[in-house]
Amino acid sequence: MSYVDVGSPGNVPVYHSTKLKVVDKRVRVAELVLRCVICVLGVLTAVLVGTDSQVKQIFSIQKKARFTDMKALVFLVLANGIAAAYSLVQVLRCVVSMVRGHVLFNKPLAWAIFSGDQVMAYVTVAAVAAAAQSSVIAKLGQPDLQWMQICNMYGKFCNQVGEGLASALFVSLSMVVISCMSAFGLFRLYGGNKGKSSASW
């Protein structure tokens, strides 16, 4: 078992066994893959929903459906755009960390990553939930309130929104997993044998 000395404030001494190093490496690779997935799918969601539109001829009037007509879709586009940008920054951090062979043992940085991941997880899940609810109403209507089934008129528009919503669902689920991983990484800094070591990744 080897000892890694960290001599700056806010850092903790770390003991690493060979098995722990292997686990740390796998966790970092999994984190990198998930953040890349979030980045790609976040952009895909924003593009699919943000560029979606359909013109419908109603008698002599042309009505164009856009994502801006539904505030929930605007929220979905913004949330996934922000999630993609945030994940890109984290991907760069992960790559630099893996290239240098560093392990996360800085508590302030761990708290910052944990907080950011938690916020993004809540935001993306809320965006998917709001967009899904609006989509169900658009698909099925609301007879009690005399709201018509919009998707009967704008089929192409609704289909593309559905594709974007499916992509956004994967983004939110991946973000939840990432937030759990960052929480695990953070609280490992406070665990272990206090007299001997503090584990981290």
From TrEMBL:
Pfam families: CASP_dom (PF04535)
Top-rank lineage group of the source organism: Eukaryota
Main location: membrane
Protein name: CASP-like protein
Similarity annotation: Belongs to the Casparian strip membrane proteins (CASP) family.
Record-linked InterPro entries: CASP/CASPL, CASP_dom
Keywords assigned by UniProt, alphabetized: Cell membrane, Membrane, Transmembrane, Transmembrane helix
One GO CC term on file: plasma membrane
Bilayer disposition of the protein: Multi-pass membrane protein
Assembly with partners or alone: Homodimer and heterodimers.
